[in-house]
Design a protein that fits this description.
Elements: H1 2-11, E1 20-23, H2 28-40, E2 45-50, H3 56-71, E3 76-80, H4 83-90, H5 94-113, E4 117-119, H6 124-137, H7 140-144, E5 150-151, E6 154-155, H8 163-172, H9 189-204, H10 208-234, E7 238-240, E8 245-248, H11 249-254, H12 258-266, H13 273-280, E9 290-292, E10 296-300, E11 304-309, E12 318-320, E13 324-328, E14 331-338, E15 351-355, E16 363-367, E17 373-374, E18 383-384, H14 385-391, H15 396-400, E19 403-407, E20 410-414, E21 418-419, E22 432-439
Parallel strand pairs: 1-2, 1-4, 2-3, 4-6
Antiparallel strand pairs: 5-6, 7-8, 8-11, 9-10, 10-11, 12-16, 13-14, 14-22, 15-22, 16-19, 17-18, 19-20, 20-21
């Protein structure tokens, strides 16, 4: 295990002098990762989150992490969270809240301490669980490629190892670790896959998890290969101008792989697979039709699909005076007053609920700009919008098209991503505003 780990670190190109942080929960996976990093010669900063969800057990997790950090002579930082109350305030599930709190804190630390890499202990079984979940969700080829080993500053160097291998090595090295019994709760989808689906696969065919991992590696290579060749094929269909792309409808129709080719062109521009499939039937649409993503618009012409950036890419603001419907390039913004808090759709990230006491009309909606910053809900300090987008995994055209809602010259919502601490209220009034972004069909 140690030799495989060292080779994997070398393959990932992690320099010996890198300033790194390792997330350690006290469980077997993260305690093993900490052990391997130390044995490889690294001196990582240890970060531990105490979510306070398991009473004394949570405190005992923390004590173990602190004890082992001291043994390894490593600097350790601990953050305690009131996860349950924060979950109620944010109106999000406990797991989602904990994950958000965890990564928010990690990224705060990377900025403050100039960390180069954040190591997490995701392993091969996590990969297979993600594969199965994405397979059931119909996430496409890219979704079946699983969790990336490197995503920005996040590094997952244990993806090569299965849970059985981790347990065997941890036992052989007599590593101390803590059991989290909540991982056995099958009311969560991932835990159902972990405790019901994967054991069934292993029972039907021993070694299935390792075989799925092997297949995922091939899928990653196939995805890269397919992407390269589809881009090559797409060149014959394209006329690329300074501010537009023209796709020849007749040539597209003659291609057996027209959906894949069109997907390779339009998916990076933010167009959904449903839209791509509809456009693949080039005979179906009359001229004059329009299709929108968050950043681009497609005009259906007789010979071409013409793709342009949205006209509102300039830095002009849309003034929000009150209740009503406001036109957007890729849909509408619906503003209304609501009550009946129990009926709110709090899980929908395209919707924001705001108490009238914390906003001043007129509001403004605009594209985000370099230098924009605000204090995200639940955090102590301000963050750059660019960092929030990065932490949320928002890249490419979706990143460029991100918008902010502004009240009294302060950002109150990075739309669909994070709201501002400014919106926190202890007691909601009867005067509540609902902001809903509805994308065009």
């Amino acid at each position: 295990m140690l030799e495989k780990f060292r080779k994997n670190i070398a393959r990932l190109g992690i320099p010996e002098n890198a300033r790194m942080m390792v997330a350690v929960s006290g469980g077997i996976d993260s305690m093993l990762l900490l052990h391997l990093l130390v044995e490889t010669g690294f001196k990582p900063i240890v970060a531990h989150c105490n979510f306070g969800l398991r009473g004394k057990d949570s405190d005992m997790d923390q004590q173990l992490v602190e004890k082992m950090s001291k043994k390894y002579k490593l600097e350790v930082f601990v953050k305690k969270f009131s996860t349950l109350s924060e979950s109620k305030i944010r109106k999000t599930g406990i797991q989602e809240t904990a994950r958000s709190l965890r990564y928010d804190w990690f990224h705060e630390m990377t900025d403050e301490m100039r960390i180069d890499y954040i190591f997490t202990a995701h392993h091969g079984d996590d990969q297979v669980e993600t594969f199965m979940i994405n397979l059931m969700r119909g996430s496409g080829l890219q979704g079946l490629c699983g969790i990336p080993e490197v995503n920005g500053k996040i590094v997952r160097p244990l993806l090569f190892a299965t849970r059985k291998e981790i347990e065997h090595y941890a036992t052989s090295q007599k590593l101390s670790f803590r059991e989290d019994l909540s991982n056995a709760d099958t009311k969560y989808l991932r835990n159902k896959v972990r405790h019901k689906l994967l054991p069934t696969l292993e029972e039907i065919r021993p070694g299935s998890v390792s075989k799925v991992l092997d297949t995922m590696r091939l899928l990653n290579e196939a995805h890269d290969f397919l992407t390269f060749h589809l881009q090559h094929e797409a060149k014959d269909l394209l006329i690329v101008g300074q501010n537009e792309i023209k796709i020849d409808r007749k040539k597209l129709q003659n291609s057996v792989y027209r959906h894949l080719i069109l997907y390779s062109i339009l998916q990076p521009l933010g167009f959904a697979d449903d839209t791509v499939r509809r456009l693949s039937d080039t005979v179906r649409f009359q001229t004059g039709r329009k299709f929108f993503s968050d950043s681009h618009v497609i005009f259906v012409e007789k010979q071409f699909y013409v793709v342009n950036p949205l006209a509102e890419k300039q830095k002009t603001m849309l003034e929000i005076k009150g209740a009503g419907t406001y036109s957007l390039p890729a849909g509408i913004l619906k503003v209304s007053q609501v009550s009946e808090r129990g009926l709110w759709d709090v899980e929908n990230k395209s919707i924001l609920y705001v108490d009238n006491s914390v906003v001043t009309f007129p509001l403004s909606l605009r594209l985000w700009e370099s230098g924009d910053k605000f204090r995200p809900f639940g955090l102590k300090g301000t963050q750059n919008v660019s960092n929030i987008l990065t932490n949320a995994g928002i890249t490419g055209t979706e990143r460029k098209a991100a918008t902010v809602l502004i009240s009294s010259n302060e950002i109150i919502w990075l739309c669909g991503v994070r709201s501002a601490e400014k919106l926190r209220v202890e007691t909601w009034s009867e005067n509540i505003w609902k902001f809903e972004i509805i994308k065009a069909e």
